[in-house]
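B., you asked whether I could sanity-check this one before it goes into the benchmark set. Here's the sequence:
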Amino acid sequence: MSEQNFVPDRRPLASRERAASKAVAHWLATRGASPNAISLAGMIAGIAVGAALAATSLAPSPVWSRLGFTAAAVLIQLRLLANMFDGMVAIETGKASPAGAMYNEVPDRVSDAAMFLGAGYALGGQPPLGYIAALLAVFLAYLRAQGKVAGAHQEFCGPMAKPQRAFVTTMLAIYCAAAPAVWQVDLIVRGWGAAAWVLALIIVGELWTAGRRLRRIGERLRELQA
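And here's what the prediction gave me:
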């Protein structure tokens, strides 16, 4: 399959249709930006998110913890921007290809794992919850890909798809950067802070999302067989 004939199956995003987004993608394309390099930059931002979150539990003072959470919130947005612009630039330059799709997917899985593992080790987090959230994020991507392999389509539904997971984690980072320290640890359950509760919420949402995706893919495959 040639690059010119490859049409990527993309997540529907309203932000992709905004004039400002298209202008930035055009600007990047005209300056020779590589879609794959943008994807890798997004992965680096994702890894940095995890490092910033994990560092909050090791910070020498509350001020440094707040700076870590603030950095994580900013880096999540940078990762999302990279996730959006890599595909837009690929289409703008006519370089969309199966290899590019791989560069889009693999860094996302690394970024998801880094973000949730970091949240598990963050101030107020619980490492086991971080590992479970990371595994489920990879599983959701697997379901989406398998739906397409089976002949249906890539199912992007939520309620805890990648954009929603990133939004909830961003809100966690902002909350922990701004809220008083006593509101961040030992919330109802000893050792559970805001990070642990948010990870638990994400896990529940991921399980719900997995069920919805399986059901929708199954319905689509039955329609194709009818």
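One thing to flag: Helices lie at 19-30, 35-55, 62-93, 98-120, 127-149, 162-178, 194-225. Otherwise nothing jumped out at me.
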